[in-house]
Fold:
Amino acid sequence: MRIKLEQHQFEGPLDLLLQLIEDQQMDITALALSEVTEQFLNYVRSLQEKNPTNLADFLIIAAKLLVIKSKALLPNLDLGADEEEAAFDLTAQLLTYKKFREVAKFLKNLEARRKQSWSRETEFTDRVTFLPDPEVTVDVLAGTLGKLATELKEIVKLPEKVLEKVVSITEKINHIQALIGQKVETRLSELLKDASGKTDVIVTFLALLELTKQRILSLDQEEKFADIIIKKN
Amino acid sequence: MDLNKLKSQILSILFVASKPVSIKELTETFGMSESDIKEAVEEIVSENDTSGIILLAHNDRLQLASNPENSSQVKKFLSLELREKLTEAALETLAIILYKQPVSRAEIENIRGVNSQYSIRQLLIRGLIEKSSSAQDRRVQNYQTTHEFMQTLGITDMRKLPDFETLTQNIQLPENKPDQS
Amino acid sequence: MDLNKLKSQILSILFVASKPVSIKELTETFGMSESDIKEAVEEIVSENDTSGIILLAHNDRLQLASNPENSSQVKKFLSLELREKLTEAALETLAIILYKQPVSRAEIENIRGVNSQYSIRQLLIRGLIEKSSSAQDRRVQNYQTTHEFMQTLGITDMRKLPDFETLTQNIQLPENKPDQS
Structure:
């Protein structure tokens, strides 16, 4: 039975990928992984609005899947040893994750027994002795609080930082459409010229796929391995 | 019920209760007769004679206590415990209470991002902080520094604490965002 | 010293202590070797199955607790609420910390494939995990499980948990079956 992906809350990209592979009932090969890439990317698109903070984590795995898919389609494609190795580690990563999910299930079963134990509230009012620590002065305490304040600031800021990292796909779609409106046609290399990292590249690809699907753009390649030409329909 | 099982359950209850419990309360919980409960209690009393935790039964009220025969070791342990320096965790907790008092345990834990039960106890035992109930909600337990500790620090007015304005402003709680992993 | 006497004295100390007690604190109190203390501790732990008050030993620290088998009676008597259920994200994070401890946040996130700051923070505030103090490199923050973890899941002896290999021996990804096409 297939789970409707959009309605299911996945704990993360590996959770989603395991589900997709198990749905496919395929061997875990590069081919199987490249088969589910499209579904994975579809989910990532839907995630944009639902839970943008986790989007970056999904995009990292999406990048690995795109590498695997490209290699399956174009075996001669050279993506650099690091990228390829990271992508093919995905199988090992999935297995480790699956094992820990089994441990999580075990813990859940322990919890479901509803057998808990409690410690005791020790009564110590009659033991209270005023005993300050001579090294603890007002300045020491002010310094400690200052450090806490700095740590807090970082915690509050972190989700914002994660969000900054993710370029919104809609924004990217608008950008590409505007660019093509001016030029009628452009090249992929042109679009990726200003990409500021792996995440940005993935988002550009996603935006392109989306626009092609909506038949706003068409993609063309003059010969194998040549730059991809993007045209307005 | 199996007598050993009943004895174990009574001990668990007395341990967690940490205050005297009457035989009557136990008969209600177990739905058993007073004589059954008393039989189990008497067995615990005689078995625990040499144990570190003994059962005191007085006027049908039951309470656990540490065995007085071990009192010299217990005293030694407690005095060693008191002589310890304040831990880093206790220091953080104390700093928060000093600047934000009166402040609740939940607030302290949200600021520190860790459970602070034991730090609070350490500070209470050493007389540096004390409980105060919240004016708005009597169920909320708040903490404040003791008068003695403020005197030791030489503070008469909270507002004169170093960087009082900036520090209290910067100690703000991160919001809970339950949709995140 | 007589082993039974030592066991009794350790129990008395743990009974009055207001926090988990380290093996080191006990060696100082008794002026005895670590191995003597540990022998007595292990004997007490081996009686955990049946006694109403059990000894939780974890990361060389000791704490008394009620027997989880008596959970429903204790709960009923004291009208306690059971602890809130853990979320899937918290369970995953806890699973990794349990079998990899002490473990860093980076390693947890690498296994889960997802930012785990929020889960870690929730587990820290609930006291189910703590920052590990014995880290070699102070800049790397490691995490480990606590006594509260044992109490929440009703674990009486960490050594009785199945090992990771046994627990996950049947877990595999769909295998390569040649000639499927």
Summary: Residues 3-17 of chain B form the longest helix (15 residues).
